[in-house]
Design a protein that fits this description.
With 148 residues, the chain is of the alpha+beta class. It has four helices and four strands, in the order αββββααα. The protein has one domain: Ubiquitin Conjugating Enzyme. It is globular and about 50 Å long. The mean pLDDT is 94. This is UBC core domain-containing protein.
Length: 148
């Protein structure tokens, strides 16, 4: 896809995201550059990330939507599938990517991942090993989130 087509697709996705007003997720281009966005997801009302808000960086390749964007947490996130640099281990951002995915579906998948990690493929072994001990896990998540 040419750069103009990528921008057109992303403009359409932005409009859809704004019009739908999906609770707990949002994303906007960084200025006039439609290939770099900042996204926001909120933790669910019931999981260990309740009341927390996370910023994400989304960088779209020249052949988007045929290749997945690079998505990273900019806000620190203690999670089994997120490393210390904010990299995310999520199949739809890797080998399960499809051109039918949108910014909205990416953000909702990451939001869902917060409460449903894949402990079989951890990037953070400490978080993965603590996941089964939810009270201790929640305590550590709250502590790390407060530290920023």
């Amino acid at each position: 896809m040419a750069d103009g087509q990528v921008a057109k697709r992303l403009q359409s996705e932005l409009m859809n995201l704004m019009m739908e007003g999906v609770p707990g997720v949002s994303a906007f281009p960084d200025g006039d550059n439609y290939t770099q966005w900042t996204g926001t997801i909120h933790g669910s009302d019931v999981g260990p990330y309740k009341g927390m808000k996370f910023q994400l960086s989304l960088v779209f390749p020249k052949d988007y939507p045929y290749s997945a964007p690079t998505v990273k947490f900019m806000t620190g996130c203690f999670h089994p599938n997120v490393d210390m640099s904010g990299n995310i281990c999520l199949d739809i951002l890797k080998d399960k990517w499809s051109a039918t995915y949108t910014v909205k579906s990416i953000l909702l998948s990451i939001q869902s991942l917060l409460d449903e990690p894949n402990n079989d493929s951890p990037l953070n072994n400490q978080a993965a090993s603590l996941w089964s001990q939810q009270e201790e896990y929640k305590r550590l998540v709250a502590k790390k989130y407060a530290e920023g």
